Fold this sequence. Notes:
single chain; mainly alpha; two-stranded antiparallel sheet; 6 helices; 2 strands; 62% helix; globular
Amino acid sequence: MHAFHLLGLVAAMLAASPSWAQDQSSKLHxxxxxxxxxxxxxxxxxxxxxxxxxxxxxxxxxxxxxxxRYAPGGVRALPFCPPDSTPLSQYVKAYTAYGRRVPQDLKxxxxxxxxxxxxxxxxxx
Length: 125
């Protein structure tokens, strides 16, 4: 599975230009919906159809999850607070559900829409 994380990271880095970030929330959402539709949970592991879109979403959300889990000194600098045990698939599902509920936010910069979605799904208390 590490190869797919690496592919997702590379795809995210290639697509992370300022113009992409400004108008591509809907593209990430489409990729994540495709991933969500193909998710299979079996014996505690996750599998999904591997193509550019699904691996891109998985890699993007994996980066977000890593920022939460490995914050320096345990300081939470992000506006959401998922439990440490939150699986990556829940980040994906939170984002796709948010995009369906608030489709106008898919016109926002990608980072903003992801932060808003995860803030609603995992509020800090």
